[in-house]
Amino acid sequence: MNKIQLLRLLRKNIKLSDKRSPIFEQNKWAKGIAYFMAALFVFYLLLYGIIIGMAADGEAGTIITAMIVILPIDFLLRFIFQTTPAMQAKPYIMLPISKYSVIECFLISSHISGFNFLWLGMFIPFSIIILCAGAEFWTTLMVLIMSELLIILNSQIYLFFRTLINRNVLWFLAALALYVIPYIPTIIVPKEKTFEHTIDFIDKFNTAWWLLPIILIFIAGVFFVNRHLQFKYVYEEISKKKEKELKNVSQFAFFERFGIIGEYLKIELKSNIRNKTMKQRCIMSFCLVAMFSVLIAYTDIYDNPMMTNFWCLYCFAIFGMTTLIKIMGQEGNYIDLLMTQKENILALLKAKYWFYSAVLIVPFVIMLPAVFTGKFTILMLFAYMLLMAGFLHFIIFQLAVYNKQTLPLQQKVTGKGNMENGMQIVIELFALFGPGIIIGVGYLLVGITATYIFMCVLGLAFIATHHLWLRNIYNRMMKRRYENIEGFHDTRV
């Protein structure tokens, strides 16, 4: 069997695996949403392609220069929506076929994935406008090909860094440094003309023919690096390499005063400290909060009121949105034990609520520099913190009723992402846009100060009644317990 036949067979097996999955119905919901978002993304790319093409004044290489902005955006979008292809290779590693061939086939699949070709929604309209403006056909065609190859190269760079970030989150700083390179002159010499000089320098070479073979060489080089890296870490995970023994085990005796809820608080804290999946989400969330806090406090990038309110909202929301979105997922690994005693799950939900509400103090402290520089106010921080602790947590905790897919605690490369069903997607969208709608409407009707006071009151109301709505969630979970337990069993790795 040659590699082309193997590639076709693997792609066929993946489609069959998706159809036979016990969560196929949920996958269909998620795919429908994904197709809608992709269509919306292409529509925006089409608009930007037309805008850039009209502003390019017949210069075909303008789109290559714009890559210093496009590639970081592409990387961040992949980080949000795309996983490494090696997770799909797990079932084939132990088969009597070339292990590297399997990895290669999945890496090739990542080259020809639909995500890479979405950007043609920008490149093709740009090329058509440039041709109509009098640019040479072959130059325009070469620039179009180079643009798409740069996106493919970026996809391989993403796989490289995503694999390393899964091992150590500090690699995110290396990825950030790579995309900041074009802006280094502006950072070193912060003058108005510095960035223009950088753009002029790139413009000198953006249509050079020798860029094409250089891009191809880089794609080949990163491909073989990924081939080695993905195989190494996937094999390490499936071989269940022995973890280092803990020398010191923290008892967190402070929580013992809270009884059974205190025990679950210990579990939640230790899970975020020790388990790879949860620890990575925790670190990434706080790193993003710190980054946006510094940008807001010490730069004028987000000086307008709309943007400062937007980032203040999501700096508080990001940790809960990334961790609680899969609430009960980690407990799916031992859900049978939790069902052995009455109201165990209710105590667990209360512990989670207390823990994730207390964690909001961290972004509050991180964003204090923005208060000292006058970008935020103390009332503003309290308003968003209380709104998140009350209203947003009330929304996200509803997912505990419907989540029934086990979240692997230790697997980083091979662990599959969980897809959502319709109700989960509705709740997540409401959690994403609900607070923003409240703030926007309040700002238009009563002004920003009165809106902050209303947010504090609304948040405190949900906080004061948390024992009531948590019990309601618990009662609804118990009505679905057999369906949920079956789902947790079916999705365990």
Structure notes:
There is one protein chain. The protein is mainly alpha-helical and 493 residues long. Helix 14 (276-298) packs antiparallel against helix 15 (305-323) and helix 17 packs antiparallel against helix 20 (378-396). It is 73% helix and 0% strand. It has 25 helices and no strands. The radius of gyration is 25 Å and the shape is globular.
Uncertain regions spanning at least 5 consecutive residues: 413-419
Q: What's the total number of strands?
A: 0
Major beta sheet summary: none
Instruction: Tell me roughly what share of residues is in helical segments.
Output: over 70%
Distance between the termini: 29 Å
- The fraction of residues assigned to DSSP E strands is under 5%
Report the total helices.
Answer: 25
Average pLDDT metric: 77
Q: Return Rg in Å.
A: 25 Å
Quaternary assembly: single chain
**Form type:** globular
H-E string: HHHHHHHHHHHHHHHHHHHHHHHHH
Determine the structural class based on helices, strands and strand pairing.
Answer: mainly alpha
